[in-house]
Amino acid sequence: MTATLPGSSLRRAFRRHPAGVVVITADAERGPVGFTATSLTSVCAEPPLISFGISTGSSSWPHVREAASVVVNFLGAHQEDVARRFATSGVDRFAAPTCWHRLANGDPVLDGTAGWLRAEVQTLIPVGDHHLVLALVIATDLRDGTPPLLYHDGRYHTIQDDAS
Question: What is the pLDDT of residue 162?
């Protein structure tokens, strides 16, 4: 039997891997919820599927588990405060100063982002103390020219334009 790597070693390895920062929002008819994530993955283009991970210990998990759809909000470089707010436990993440609105179907979406994807939840796959959520993208609203917010080595970063 192969020895398993301690979780702390895996976390340390992935701290070295830069990732885009998103906030996943949902509403399972009990009010809006959301959480900061760096685990967003494009699974395939045909059909347009995405995945992300969520801890079963997260306050958002019971809502995501029951939600028919989610919104992936791509955070811009100017939204580190939003990323921190949605990563903080025990606060009303949708209270001021958070600016948001509802889409026609009722899903919560954050204002001022680099764009968003709306996706219908297809499958919830239990994986250790998390669930992998597989979702079909059904709508997008993307903005050009908004640099992304990135996460690397425990800190938020932006992409610097080297073209000058």
Answer: 46
